[in-house]
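Case study B.
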Amino acid sequence: MRNVSAALLLAVAAGCASAGARQAGAPPAPAQPAPAARAASADSTSVDRAQYPSTYKRHPNPPVVIRNATIMTATGQEIQGGSILFRDGRIVAVGPTVEAPADAVVVDGTGKWVTPGVIDTHSHIGVYAAPGTQAESDGNEATNPVTAEVWAEHSFWPQDPQIPLAIAGGVTTIQALPGSANLIGGRSAVMKLVPGRTVQEMKFPGARYGLKMACGENPKRVYSSRGPSTRMGNMAGYRAAFIQAEQYRRRWDKWNKDHTGDVPQRDLRMESLAEVLRGNIFVQNHCYRADEMVQMLDLAHEFGFHIRSFHHAVEAYKIADILAREGTAVSVWADWWGFKEEAMDGIYENAALVQQAGGRAVIHSDDASGIQRLNQEAAKAMYHGRRAGIQVTRDQALRWFTANPAWVLGLDSIVGTLEPGKMADVVLWSGDPLSVYARALQVYNDGWLVYDRNDPAHQPKTDFSIGQQP
Amino acid sequence: MIAFLLAQTIAITGGTVYPVSGPKIDNATVLIRDGRIAAVGTNVAIPAGATRIDATGKWVTPGLIDGAGNMGLREISAVQNTNEGTLRGNEVAAAFNVAEGINPASTLIPVTRIEGVTTTLAVPGGDLIWGQAVLIDLDGTTIEAMVAKSPVAIVADLSEGAKSAGGGSRAGVAQRLRRVFNDANEYARRRTDYDRAQMRDLAASAADLEALLPVLRGQLPLIVVANRRSDIETALRIAREYKIRLILAGAAEGWEIADRIAAAGVPVLVQPLDNIPTYDALGVRYENAALLTNRGVKVSLLETQTENSRNLRQQAGNAVAYGMTWEQALRAVTLTPAETFGVADRYGSLEAGKVANVVVWTGDPFEFSTGVEHVFIRGKEIPLRSRQTELMERYRTLPPKY
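Model:
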């Protein structure tokens, strides 16, 4: 057996554990099509060593117990006067009474709320960094409609001043994506939102890569002069790329198996796509319109891959039944609409209707401002759904920005809920997180207090801010 | 239903009324007659034949006013053919009044008003001087029926966005603005010479210079977009030099010089949820609205995204989360913008004689849990329907019945 990248091994582990992570009380998981037959294996990759590995290390911290808070676990429970204990980066206990060791830091949660850390499946923080100049515009490699070879982590700037702002909004994990100029924009970077000098220190250990794909207006606008310039041109572009990738995958899989002949030529673009075909990289697909999403599902069927989540998906409610059947999540806004033609049919009830149909809804941001209040956006979507007569529980709305995005990233066995054994990504809120008045008071990432609203010692600033921002 | 919509006299009874001009009144009646508020209080005689709306347990406020955006001027921002808010090819477009670009049939209007925003400022876009902003009520089949005031102000830009109109320099922007103002004054003094072509070339067209005269005479405010502290200071300086009635818009770093803005008596339009640093405003922060208010600046809150002007109440709620009092925030989306835009005699509070823009909420208007129960614009009850509610109804059970 060849050596396998550590990242890949971890990713496989996460994927396997994922199936067992569903809790009693959680909504039934949507029907999942069987994973591609070509499951990840040691022989599937075209590289035999760790590529750009995460160097993330847990920050050493004392144990913490938060007492007498309302704890929303994202597993169906809202515990009044509850406590949560975490140590060494892991949640140890959650419940009405929790015994804490003598060395635990005790946080009084009276009148406050506790939730899992917020997870955003769609961010451009780091790749479109503030202050938003051309010099920091690193999100779209808009030089070719298919750039599966680019990796968002190679653009990501750890000193983006938007990072601490997102942390202050309770965000602990993001998927930083390439932009949507291209049909296939490149690999995403799944990042723990902690202060760090390097991208590698922030990379979520073991997280799978996502592959950004984009439908509709953006690619055909960007490439109108050279093509694709139409939606049919878009489809032809994806298909041509995956036909090539299928050949590439076969060539490498064969060589990995028998080691005869010359080592095939490595091709970074094809490598990303082949990993999608092998089921190792999740497709994260920017797509607004219902009809286009169903075209993309057909594309996925043609090549035997699975679309993990549609993103933006403002018309998901029109095909909520199909999306539930396919087991494809949707990462949506609560209320963005109308800024472009393919966004004209956005409605408040989108997430709620997807939920009602048995699908998996996620509230995402795609925005450095919106990421700071995903709790508010979920609240908006929940209450509008309820007013329209659609049942959405508070726990379900919480899952829209915690457990469900964790699933979209393949990390739902590790983060996204407050359960013993999960990573201690924990937010303490000043009030009900589904209220407009609540603010994150403390944010723990893997047990590390990365933000404390009342303690300047725990409000890390990026280098950008030093001496430049008041 | 029809009779209900056409009713001339409406009594909203039993609600907790927030007149804004005074303290809240429990279990009060708001009486609407012929499009105006006839009475507000606990002792209001309800005429026989009045349509009664039971607001027991509900909150009643003035309709919210958003002093930003391109409502009616922009259907889809990315579709150029549906945009009317910018006069291209004229960097000094003072005479450009947007009113006739407004589309009363815009789908954004019902989407916005059923969330409690009843009045918005239709603001032009542009380069140095953008044009004339117009205040509209979000109901009416004609432009005439919608316009609440036109013009409200002329809009100019001293932010980073205007630099190309100043040769790439902020100093150039300020100097060009002064040249335009000087030439407007010169034009006013020497109209006859101008008509005989006995004047040098002026810094703008006669129509645009003419349009600036009410600003230079202190009759019409000038809204200046400025975010960086130094740009705000430039705006204050120029306003002082020309005795201009200034309104600051944006004012992201305004909190840094709140005392000076307050001393100048300049009202400010702020979007609370701005905190992403740019080189135009590295000091931008959520607390801006509160810090300005606490120093005595008259602050109106904005939601600048036209299609989501309805999020004005979320902006206000966040302004409270970051330091405003709830009462200050409510005033900042009702009476304060009415004052700033010169319509406080007709808008912004629930008082006898005012235009009956009234919203009945299930609770605190800033909370997500709160829904809108009734919206009245100019005394007419607005059906709580929009293209979005219709799409929802069409697809709430799948497959849809086409």
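The first strand of chain B starts at residue 9 and ends at 17. The remaining cases will be described in the next quarterly update.
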